[in-house]
Design goal:
single chain; 383 residues; mainly alpha; 0% strand; disordered N terminus
Length: 383
Amino acid sequence: MQGTRRKPPGFAKPRVEMMPDAANIKPLTALRFFAAFWVVMYHYWPNLSAAAPPAVIAKGYLGVEAFFTLSGFILCHVYLQGVGNGRFRYGDFLWNRLARVYPLHLVTLAGVGLMAFAAGLAGIAVDKNMLAWSALPANLLLVQAWGFAPVSGWNHPSWSISAEWFAYLCFPAFAVVAWKLRERPRLAVGLALALIAGLYPLFHTLAGFPLTEATIRWGFLRIVPCFAYGCALHALWRSGALTGRFSGIGACLAGAAVLLTVHLGAPDQAIVMALGALIVTLAGLAATGASFATQAPLVYLGEISYSTYMICIPWKILAVNAALKVLKIDGDQLPLYAWLVVMLALIPLSALSYHLVEKPARERMKAWANSWRERRPATAKAG
């Protein structure tokens, strides 16, 4: 009797080989833009009105949770197979992630410092924490969300990049669990949901504030349940169980579910769970080749969304103060037209940041890595 050849370990169903690569999950790239602008609206609303914001804007800080969940999903999509097959190179992975986030972080940090210094020379009062030298080492080392920064200084949104860096360092642990559960994706999702459902109220009880409001205090922990959720959702999507079951209408319904949970005042953990449903629905659409949310303008806005997120607070400080002075307004509320100009200006400024700083710096760092790899064999032979 002729033996059968054993297939290499991988995901259970053959249809997953037809899944798009990371660059082609365009609906998820587009979603990054909406997550970034959700955060922007949350931060910019107080400069439009002193009234309480609508529920959907009041929950804008959860845009960060969307980014964290997307990060777990995409990193598993790109690297998980390599982890399972023993081809994962931790050093290369960390360098690529550093190339993705660090150059713009460094530039915005320096920009905030120069802006605060110039304001001081001009006699303009600024928050003393903007130039908190005691917080600078933690910011430079990307550990400001690990409890090492005494105050929230410099470019405050970068706390989430510090949390991402924590997840990158721990990625092998997430990946090993995700690989072991790859053929039991529903169990993986169930465990991730249980972690979210249990950790959020427990943290609130012990810390006295919600985990979804943690930044420099416990920000590194804030990413853990979302990142794990993203890894689990990737396993569910990659299993092929969802392929062909979604449409643009389904994606709209998933988005409506997110809005409904927000509008009804659902707990943050319920909204995070709904965001995950939206993510896996959009990924399911991409697997079917649907054109929903794949239009070039939306994808481009998603590509520049990291710049949008990183420059939104420095730009807000600069633009709002300039507008208040030019318009001779007492207080900090702008008229609607001026507020819209300040907010919408973020898009071209994000494009400039992306093309002048983020993208070329990333490519330069990756080119350095390639050059080092090419020189390594020659150095070894010479030795």
